[in-house]
Structures are given as structure tokens and as C-alpha cells.
């Protein structure tokens, strides 16, 4: 007669697969449909023939956005250099004024395209920063829940004096802590990339707006100094 094994209580059960694998699978983004979708992401090199036909309302709405520029492509700035911020509504108005000026042949197509794409890229950086913060919060919250669950199981294993399960759970807690640190470090790197890109765009906007003012007497709202 085979001895019947009594199942462990739910608190003592240890998931055989990695907790991190479960967490990563939960956080995976759904596959992107292959159907043709009209993208609202600003194009870096638009076709000159359709540049003036584009709607000025095409702005920073892609979720989650892709990075425009790699960190190696951006110039480095000293930490003491001036930093700027932009008023979103003012920049949307700038796009409208810019398009009206281009239709009146007051500015060159190259200057129009360069200025328009720089404004839209700067606006898109707001979405990039928000997306990174949302991802960071979601990852931190889910990892906190996983770690809390492991600690509860560890307390139960201590009460039962189950050394094997305690050792296994300690290893899993260490893996969660290491993975959380890795996510936070990667998040900081990505935030720095987006911020450098943003400041690069804002400085470029100042130069382009100055050119528009001198060549076409076009007054646009400048980025504000922090």
C-alpha cells in the first residue's frame, strides 16, 4: 500500500519556476498588429514634397514611444550649462504659426522642416519621459509584491523549521533584489538619454527661432530658462 502524501499548505508551496520569469511574462507587451496603422510619431527626415501638407496637430502621441536618438549621437554638456523647459500649448501654437509662414513663402523649406521636426521631437520627449516613469513604477510595484509574497513564505518556512525551503526562498529573494537593482540602473540610463536629447532639442530650438526672427520676422515662443 502506497503511503499517501499530505499536500503542503498554500503558504509552504514554492513555485518551481523562477519568480522573475513569472514577473517578466506578466509585464510583456502584447504583440504589435501587422495591420497598417497611421503613425503619429514625428519623422526625422520627412519628404519635402509633402512637408507642407502635414497637419500641425500631428504631435507626441505614440505609446510607448521609441527613442529618437542614441546617447552616443548627442553632444555632451557641462553640468553648469543652462537648462530649459517648454510650454506645450505654446509650442503647438508655434507649429501653427510656422506652417502659416511657410505657406506665405516667408521661410525656406529646409528651415521650415528643421524647425518643425525639432519642435515635434522636443514635444515627443515629454511622452518618452512619462512612459519611462510609468514603466519604472509598474516594475517596482510588481517586484515589491513578489518580494512581499516570498517573505511571507519564508516566515512560514521558519515556523515549520524547513531548512531546504528557507534556503531556496532566500535565494529567490536575493534574485528579486538583484533584478530590481538592475531595472533601476537601466531606468536611470534611459532617463539620462531622454533628458540629454530633450535639452539638445531645446537649445537647437533657440538657434532656429533666432534664424526665423532675423530672416522672416517670425516671432515664436522660446523655451523658458529653468
UniProtKB/TrEMBL annotation:
One family from Pfam that matches here is FAM186A-B_C
User: InterPro entries this protein is in?
Assistant: FAM186A_B_C
Q: Which residues form the FAM186A/B C-terminal domain?
A: 81-225
* TM ranges: none
Query: What name has this protein been given in UniProt?
Result: FAM186A/B C-terminal domain-containing protein
Query: Source species, please?
Result: Micrurus lemniscatus lemniscatus
